[in-house]
């Protein structure tokens, strides 16, 4: 399940553990965000159980949004070993998203 991120330190602490982290940026009036979120959660939980997942509501937490230079929603940031590995924006293919995460996840976590 995605945790609600409200503070920068909360996200930085999680990223700094070196464990895989996914940050999902969404907005209150974004229909794509609402449809995509449960699909991403389900696939990550099923395929990559070690991920920490956070949601940032961009309309409420503008300072977090700008810190991570997010300009459109939904945006998904994926971190492996404290580094941003990939950034996905707008319309993404769930199948391709999962496929792209398999190799680094296997290398880092198994």
Task: Describe the 3D structure.
- There is one protein chain.
- The chain is an alpha/beta fold.
- The chain contains four helices and five strands, in the order E-H-E-H-E-H-E-E-H.
- It has a five-stranded mixed sheet, sandwiched between helices.
- It is globular, with a radius of gyration of 13 Å.
Order of helices and strands: EHEHEHEEH
Going across the major beta sheet, what is the strand order?
Answer: 1-3-2-4-5
What portion of the residues fall into strands of 2 or more residues? 15-25%
> What structural class do the secondary elements suggest?
alpha/beta
Q: Give me the Rg, rounded.
A: 13 Å
Q: What integer is the average pLDDT?
A: 94
List keywords for this structure.
single chain; 110 residues; alpha/beta; 5 strands; 44% helix
How is this structure best summarized?
This protein is of the alpha/beta class and about 110 residues long. Helices cover about 45% and strands about 25% of the residues.
């Amino acid at each position: 399940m995605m945790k609600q991120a409200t503070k920068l330190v909360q996200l930085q602490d999680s990223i700094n553990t070196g464990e895989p982290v996914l940050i999902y940026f969404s907005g209150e009036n974004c229909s794509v965000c609402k449809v995509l979120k449960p699909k991403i959660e389900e696939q990550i939980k099923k395929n990559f159980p070690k991920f920490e997942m956070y949601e940032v509501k961009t309309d409420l937490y503008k300072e977090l949004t700008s810190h991570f230079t997010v300009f459109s929603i939904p945006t998904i940031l994926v971190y492996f070993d404290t580094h941003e590995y990939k950034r996905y924006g707008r319309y993404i293919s769930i199948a391709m998203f999962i496929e792209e995460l398999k190799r680094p996840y296997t290398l880092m976590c198994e």
